[in-house]
């Protein structure tokens, strides 16, 4: 299953969970989930709250960020050697980036929350590059602190915690700190997409070029109440199932994102992106696509053996195959 945590990180999170009574961890996880669904933001005052975040949210955000970075890696040959994880939380984006780009040799993790920085440090000990990482405290609404610059700058589930009016400026801060790629990932909710849309508009104005998911740098063709988001499936940790009292061994994480490149970076965006789960019927399968010409519904007849074969495994979030 795609999006599965690295073994070392999975073991570290399970060990972290084992350090807290099951009931306390379950209560903290329940509160965390309620806060997340309501858009209230996370309140991580106690060590058990941080452990609950690592158990209940880190695997899902990892799966989403890893899916995004895999797409970015497919759309450019640029190989980053350095990373800034902005609004790092427990270091989720750093782990995903290291798994995607094996040439990363240096990482800087930035967060405004002392507890999250401490948790990120603890988990970082399980990865050689992260064990040598630099940690800096800073609030993304003002600066990146002493982070400097890096080939790859990632903000995972971070800009949604800022006032809406400050998202564009924060996105520009990230872009200016990048010498190659800038990636912003947010929850796949209308509110999360609004954050991504604001960041996207600011980045395009600054001259950034869209790598994904959009096949163009023009205005987004979607209008409310519609929004652009995708889904990643991931296996649940044993500790997560215990904390939630869940029997289902997997969960689906919805996410929205934008990835851009700076000047001089070669990219090849998708010609079209599948925006919804395809609708299959007996005579055909219909795909809702975002293209350079706007939204398009493309139907692939079953009788078209060549195109049917080409699109057989094409799903929500994928690039629509180029006919050859």
TrEMBL record:
Keywords noted in UniProt: Iron, Iron-sulfur, Metal-binding, Methyltransferase, Transferase, Transit peptide
Residues of the signal peptide: none
Organism: Phreatobacter aquaticus
GO cellular component terms listed in the entry, alphabetical order: small ribosomal subunit
Cross-referenced InterPro entries: Mt_RNA_Methyltransferase (IPR052571), Ribosomal_Rsm22-like (IPR015324), SAM-dependent_MTases_sf (IPR029063)
Protein name: Methyltransferase domain-containing protein
GO molecular function, one term: methyltransferase activity
Biological process according to GO: methylation; translation
Pfam assignment, any one: Rsm22
């Amino acid at each position: 299953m795609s999006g599965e945590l690295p073994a070392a990180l999975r073991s570290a999170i399970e060990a972290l969970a084992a350090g807290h009574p099951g009931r306390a961890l379950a209560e903290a996880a329940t509160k965390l989930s309620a806060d997340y669904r309501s858009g209230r933001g996370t309140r991580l005052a106690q060590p058990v709250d941080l452990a609950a975040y690592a158990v209940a949210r880190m695997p899902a955000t990892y799966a989403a960020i890893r899916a995004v970075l895999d797409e970015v890696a497919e759309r450019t040959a640029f190989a980053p050697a350095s990373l800034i994880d902005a609004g790092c939380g427990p270091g989720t984006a750093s782990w995903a980036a290291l798994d995607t780009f094996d040439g990363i040799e240096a990482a800087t993790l930035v967060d405004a929350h002392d507890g999250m920085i401490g948790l990120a440090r603890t988990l970082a000990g399980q990865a050689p590059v992260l064990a040598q990482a630099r940690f800096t405290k800073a609030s993304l609404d003002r600066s990146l602190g002493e982070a400097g610059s890096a080939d790859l700058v990632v903000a995972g589930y971070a800009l949604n915690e800022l006032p809406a009016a400050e998202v564009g400026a924060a996105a520009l801060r990230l872009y200016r700190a990048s010498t190659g790629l800038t990636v912003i990932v947010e929850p796949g909710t209308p509110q999360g997409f609004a954050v991504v849309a604001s960041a996207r508009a600011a980045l395009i104005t600054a001259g950034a070029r869209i790598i994904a998911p959009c096949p163009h740098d023009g205005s987004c063709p979607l209008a409310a109440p519609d929004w652009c988001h995708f889904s990643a499936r991931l296996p649940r940790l044993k500790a997560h199932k215990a904390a939630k009292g869940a029997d289902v061994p997997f969960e689906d994480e919805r996410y929205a994102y934008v990835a851009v490149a700076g000047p001089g970076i070669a990219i090849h965006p998708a010609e079209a992106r599948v925006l919804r789960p395809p609708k299959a019927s007996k005579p055909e399968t219909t795909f809702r696509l975002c293209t350079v010409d706007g939204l398009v519904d493309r139907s692939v007849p079953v009788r078209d053996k060549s195109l049917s074969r080409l699109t057989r495994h094409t799903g929500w979030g994928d690039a629509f195959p180029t006919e050859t």
